[in-house]
Amino acid sequence: MGKRLISGTCFVAMVVGFFLLREYVDARLFQILTWIFCAIGTFEVARAVKDYSVKKNVIICTVFGVLFPAFYALMRYLVYPKFAYLLSIDFILLALIIVAIFTAIEKKDIKTFGVSALPIVYPSLFILVMLLANDLAAPKGFIAMLLIFAISPISDTMAYLVGMTYNKIRKGKAKKMCPKLSPKKTWAGAIGGVIGGVIGAVLTYAIFNPALNIPYPYLVFAAIGVVAGVLTELGDLFESLIKRKVGIKDMGNIMPGHGGVMDRIDGICFAAVLIFFVFLFI
Given this model, what pLDDT does residue 99 score? Predict the structure, then answer.
């Protein structure tokens, strides 16, 4: 419990620190945090599926995970700012082609290619969404990033507390949501997670009161919280699916008591997609 609390506190402190750098020094500095997530997260996923992938896939994917955010930053801030996202997708496609070539050389089937390609698209496509959200014009970029990093943790916490409490009241007979993937998740916890998403979104608006030209802002932010809370649950289940298929408990051990980086950002990744597109069109 002590290690879990310490590692969780360190994670929160790191995120808060990068938010302060973003707000008071330069918004582009937040890309360093997303680079850390991409580099370590890609390695964790590649290592998790290595027994079902082509040879040297961990090396290929890890190199890609390290280079991908740097490539986006190079294109976005120095070379072709307007087309950075398209060029970044091309970079992903190039990595997929390399994996396809290795798959063909080893004469493996399409299933092996799919598993080998997973670390290329997950989490990099979600990281790209975060990079794009961070670059939105003020105040949209700041609020979008706050929602991305506030909704999911609060949703996870509420899901845990509500699910645990209700399960105790029901004496361990709370209805399971998806027992084959995640035996501990209950429908009560899922409802608590959605409520947590609403709380996180509404509190973000109430505390920072951003100058956004939208009608009924509290209602809009509450709706964002509902959908983002659901997506957080889906992200957790997707991560559980991967771990269940390869027979591991945690993606890594970088955070004692919490698992790896992907165990911390799976819900964040899925919620980020919704939040980015909402703020892109506001």
Answer: 96
Q: Which residues pair with 178 in a beta bridge?
A: 182
| DSSP-assigned beta bridge partners for residue 255 | 259
Q: How far is 85 from 164, CA to CA, in rounded Å?
A: 41
Token pair of 136, please? 């939105």
pTM: 0.91
The domain ranges of the chain are 1-135, 138-282
What b/e string do you get for 156-179 counting C-beta neighbours within 10 Å, with b at 16 or more? bebbbebbbebbeeeeeebebbbe
- And the tokens for 187? 């429908």
- Segment 18-70, tens digit of pLDDT: 999 998 999 999 999 999 999 999 999 999 999 999 999 999 999 999 999 99
Mark residue 260 as left, alpha or beta (left: phi above 0; alpha: psi -120 to 50; beta: remaining).
Answer: beta
103 token code pair: 């798959």
Q: Which residue has the tokens 């080893």?
A: 106
207 Cβ neighbours under 8 A, 6+ residues apart:
none
In which residue ranges of the chain is pLDDT below 50?
A: none
**Average pLDDT, rounded, for the chain:** 90
